Amino acid sequence: MFRLIRTAILLLITFVAGMLFERNHQQELCALSGGEWMRAGLCAAKG
Q1: How confident is the model over 7-47, as pLDDT tens digits?
Q2: Model's pTM, two decimal places?
């Protein structure tokens, strides 16, 4: 039973880490394209 719980916890941690990694990557792409990253998680074009 402990192995099942441990596996679920590790999957959750991995999923959250992947989400944070992808969000950071999207912010970098937004900055490279000249946009501004908004708090809502959207990239707004300047100008």
Answers
A1: 999 999 999 999 999 999 999 999 999 899 888 888 998 76
A2: 0.71
Residue spans of beta strands (DSSP E) within 1-47: 35-37, 43-45
43 Ramachandran zone, left/alpha/beta (phi>0; psi -120 to 50): beta
Helix, strand, or coil (residue 10): helix
The structure tokens 């999957």 sit at 11
Contact 44, 38 (CB under 8 A): yes
Q: What residues contact 20, with CB distance under 8 A and at least 6 apart?
A: none
